[in-house]
Design a protein that fits this description.
Layout: H1 10-23, E1 27-33, E2 39-45, H2 49-55, E3 57-60, E4 74-79, E5 85-86, E6 96-104, H3 115-128, E7 131-146, E8 152-156, H4 169-183, E9 188-193, E10 199-204, E11 207-208, H5 209-229, E12 232-235, E13 249-257, H6 275-286, H7 288-295, H8 301-304, E14 314-318, E15 324-327, E16 341-343, H9 352-368, H10 386-391, H11 401-410, H12 412-418, H13 420-438, H14 443-449
Parallel strand pairs: 1-6, 14-15
Antiparallel strand pairs: 1-2, 3-4, 4-6, 5-6, 7-8, 7-10, 7-11, 7-12, 7-13, 9-10, 13-16, 15-16
Length: about 450
């Protein structure tokens, strides 16, 4: 098999065999992610793993969203044993483990439509420039009640608010979620209730972007499974309720040099930022509109990105202004190594592999071209009119998925981040979604217009 750098070492193979034997694993889920960010998997008996490591597991790529046309159907999965984990909620009887896979085409090349490979290419671009890219997403979600037959109730499970200490079921559910995530190898930092009723957040440790993206997919899949055990539904829909805050996925990010220094840190700067960090912010602001469809990929995403609900709208940066697109969190004295940037427009419906790749390419474009950074804006702009925004040269994020797709079609840097295959399939899938939405007659329209006209 080609690409020996993706082949596991003998030590890793031996360690995986020992873990399988120790846990009495009977089945393995070979997992991957489609272009729009849905988890896909195929289950094999554990005895089949050795053969899959040697020859891959073949599947029909034309049946997967955004992968291939019918004439390009044959592909195979190659397990990345570094992602092996026993599934905690599948240990009674038929113990099952999970391995995330690379996707190859029949010629033995990494499939260009594999979102995980898109991010791996972006990370190699950063390494060629002397950097490693780390990310840490803060993922918000709602826990909702389920009714008979598994139907989801539109009512949130609890009535608590931001950081409220509660003794209801959700507090215990979050603790179990944290336990299971840690059992899956994800190092959890904290959890808390978010601002809206029924809304929560669990944060895990900062890591290299590929590991962080793997953890994000595992996080969402795990939380849904645990919620289901309590007859609840965990949703990562960006804006499930009109009058409440939406769910974001703020992403903390930093560039580290190959010898481990934080390339974003400069103790002599007012904000603690190096020139590299300032150029990186400038690049992300410049390409924010072009990468919006990747970071906020649903029609519903743009119901969240509106003024008044602590979501970013304007393409600005700041430290204390939480409505800014990019925020520079404060660091403790003497802790310059923790200097990072927080991008606040992504939401948890995004495909994290594509999102991190787009974010990295946008920032690196600013670094390469030494893009100038505008002055920070620390005051809220929600009440500003168009004239004052224009005077300060402040642009806004796209206001709909349709606008975001148009911006993506004009942004060559973000297009190159995705690659031709993923770009074409993503635009195709999302254009269909947008056109279907445009033709939909909503309840709001019926209520507003049916009797009046």
């Amino acid at each position: 098999m080609s690409h020996p750098e993706l082949q596991p070492t003998e030590e890793l193979v031996s360690a995986t065999r020992e873990r399988i034997q120790r846990a009495n694993v009977r089945f393995i889920n070979l997992q991957f992610t489609d272009v729009v960010g849905h988890v896909k998997s195929v289950t094999i008996p554990v005895e089949r793993l050795e053969g899959v490591l040697d020859h891959g597991h073949w599947f029909d790529g034309s049946s997967i969203e955004g992968f291939a046309r019918s004439v390009e159907r044959d592909m195979y999965l190659v397990p990345d044993l570094s992602t092996f984990s026993v599934i905690p909620w599948e240990q009674d009887g038929d113990v099952t483990a999970r391995i995330i896979c690379w996707i190859f085409n029949p010629r033995g090349d990494v499939f260009p439509g594999d979102p995980r490979a898109v991010l791996a290419r972006a990370l190699q671009t950063a390494r060629d420039l002397g950097y490693r890219y780390n990310t840490g997403p803060e993922i918000e979600f709602f826990l909702l009640r389920t009714q008979g037959g598994g139907r989801i109730s539109p009512l949130p499970h609890d009535q608590a608010g931001y950081f409220d200490s509660s003794t209801d079921l959700a507090a215990n559910v979050r603790k179990e979620m944290m336990n299971v995530l840690q059992a899956m190898g994800i190092r959890v930092e904290s959890s808390h209730h978010e601002g809206a009723a029924g809304q929560h957040e669990i944060d895990f440790e900062y890591d290299e972007a590929l590991t962080s993206a793997d953890n994000t997919m595992t996080f969402k899949h795990t939380l849904k499974a645990i919620a289901q055990r309590y007859n609840l539904h965990a949703t990562f829909m960006p804006k499930p309720f009109q009058d409440k805050n939406g769910s974001g996925m703020h992403v903390h990010q930093s560039l580290m040099t190959l010898d481990g220094e934080n390339a974003f840190a400069d103790g002599g700067d007012e904000y603690g930022l190096s020139d590299v960090a300032r150029h990186f912010i400038a690049g992300q602001i410049a390409h924010a509109r072009g990468m919006s469809a990747i970071l906020a990929p649903l029609v519903n995403s743009y119901k969240r990105l509106v003024p008044g609900f602590e979501a970013p709208v304007y393409l600005t940066w700041a430290r204390v202004n939480r409505s800014a697109l990019v925020r520079v969190p404060r660091t403790s004295e003497g802790k310059l190594r923790t200097t990072r940037l927080e991008l606040r427009c992504p939401d948890p419906a995004c495909n994290p592999y594509l999102a991190f790749a787009a974010m990295l390419h946008a920032g690196l474009d600013g670094v390469r071209t030494r893009m100038p950074l505008p002055e920070p804006i620390e005051e809220s702009l929600y009440a500003a009119d168009e004239a004052s925004l224009a005077q300060r040269h402040v642009e806004v994020l796209p206001r709909s998925l349709g606008d975001a797709l148009d911006a993506l079609r004009r942004d060559e840097v973000i297009q190159n981040a995705l690659g031709t295959h993923v770009l074409e399939r993503f635009l195709e899938a999302k254009t269909i979604e947008w056109e279907q939405y445009q033709g939909h007659v909503s309840g709001w329209e019926i209520e507003r217009y049916l009797e009046q006209y």
